[in-house]
Specification:
alpha+beta; Umud Fragment, subunit A; 2 domains; 8-stranded antiparallel sheet; about 15% strand
Length: about 270
Amino acid sequence: MLSSTPHAEAGKRLKAERLRVRLSTREVAQFSQKIAKLKNNPEYSISHAWLTEVESGKFMPGIFRLRSLSLIYGVPFDEILEFYGVDVRDAGKDQLPLGLPRTCLLGPTREETRQTILAPIELRAKVQLERTNLVSRMFESWGEVPVELLRQLDWKHSLYGYIGLKDFTMYPFLRPGSFVEIDGRQKKIKAGTWQDEFDRPIYFVELRDCYVCSWCELDAGHLILVPCPHSRRQIRQVRYPGDADIVGRVTAVTMRIATPQDELTK
């Protein structure tokens, strides 16, 4: 394989990591032999000649040797894989466009199940889970949004909202405690008729003192917030655009439909 292939850039990055830790190719080979012995698997072993060819971009290494390099260089394995265009953090997103024909069970990797995120106590005290809000504003007291907490979300192209625990406006379509994806490009209220309630657009709306998700209608300078009939909430009317701003249309939802067993036993 010629050095002009995409593997050449990956090879350069591997070499840069080796130089960063100030190791020769022969020293890397020696460390890899120790790893192979500990793992009781010769596939982890790396030779001086092999590493030289990999760094020159002549071929792509296998998974075991890449793991050895990640351990020797002190670089997370997923970052090493990214050198070759494999982003394991996007695995969940990559599955969505496939359109698999049969229902199946998906779950986190063993590595993900071991990871935990702890929010500062003062943050947890300030976040009002009973109120509907934009996710970014819920965590604005942090220096940055906790992307690791919701790393499957596409922050570059979408907004995300949280339905407060006391907000039953769109129940049962949007249950309290749900997270919704918002397309901020769709701010124009669509008028017309729909085949059923499922086809009717739901909008995320910012009012003067709160947020709300609901069906919407425009009438002579007023925005009418229409709740789901099953929620038994009242229709609201506010001045528009004076007292309301359309954040965008809700395009996806992640919600719980049953109380977990551990909460039932409390």
